[in-house]
Structure formats: structure tokens, C-alpha cells
Amino acid sequence: MSNPILFREAGNNYPIISLGGVVSLPGHGRIANNYEIVNVQGSTLQLVPPNPKRIACIIQNLDNTTTAVGAQIIVTLGPVGGCSIILLPYGSLYIGYDFPWIGEIDVVCPKGGNPTVEALEISLE
């Protein structure tokens, strides 16, 4: 579930440009959305929806510290068969200017372990 928090940037006199090329209005700020999936299992789940207003996003594997320590997850960018990145326990992935992606972000835990995965996305207001 997303939890939007709105930040106004009154001193911002210039537009901000997202990774998708969307230009903000001068003086408008950014939104921070938090996403979390607890107990990621063997089926692919959407963690972050597509967003052309995305500025940055960080995804972190928080592992499962109670029953199955050491659970890896696979982060998939794009449709099935797209770019897949393995995140070790407590590993993170940063999406931003140097590694842009505005599409859907999916996660799966292929070997069990049921870790918790969190994402923080910053996007235009």
C-alpha cells in the first residue's frame, strides 16, 4: 500500500524533470510513497506501480529475521523475462538518474524464506 507524504518546495523557482520526462510546475514539490510486501513468496508480486513522474526509487530486501534468515529476492523491471536483479539480504537497489526506470517493479522470492521488501519512491507532485 502506498502512503503519500506531500512536500511543498516554496523556494523552488524552477521545474523538476522526472525520469519519464514529465516537467513539474515551478514551486511544486515531490511526493514520497512507501511500499512494502511482507512475506514475499514464490509468485511474482508488484511492489511499485509504473510511474512516469518517478524521480528516484530505492528498494531494499529486509530479509526474514525470525524464521528463515538469508532469503534472497529477485527484482524484475519490466514484463516477465525483463531485467532481473538479485538482492541479497539487506541489499538495496537504487533507481534514479544513472539507472532510470519508470515502469512496474516486481519482486519474487524463488527459494522461500518469505522476506520483507520495502520501497521508497520519490515522484513529482
Structure explained in plain terms:
This protein is an all-beta fold. The chain has one domain: Jelly Rolls (Sandwich), CATH 2.60.120. 0% of the residues lie in helices and 39% in strands. The protein is built from no helices and nine strands. The chain has strands at 5-7, 30-37, 45-48, 54-61, 73-77, 83-87, 92-95, 105-108, 117-124. The strands form two sheets. A five-stranded antiparallel β-sheet has the order 1-2-9-4-7, with no helix packed on it. Strands 3-8-5-6 form a four-stranded antiparallel β-sheet, with no helix packed on it. It is elongated. The relative contact order is 0.32.
Secondary-structure element series: EEEEEEEEE
Q: Give the overall shape, derived from the CA principal axes.
A: elongated
Give the radius of gyration.
16 Å
What's the domain count?
A: 1
Short structural description:
The protein has 125 residues and is mainly beta. It contains no helices and nine strands.
Topology of this structure?
Elements: E1 5-7, E2 30-37, E3 45-48, E4 54-61, E5 73-77, E6 83-87, E7 92-95, E8 105-108, E9 117-124
Antiparallel strand pairs: 1-2, 2-9, 3-8, 4-7, 4-9, 5-6, 5-8
Which keywords apply here?
0% helix; Jelly Rolls; 125 residues; 4-stranded antiparallel sheet; 9 strands; 5-stranded antiparallel sheet; mainly beta
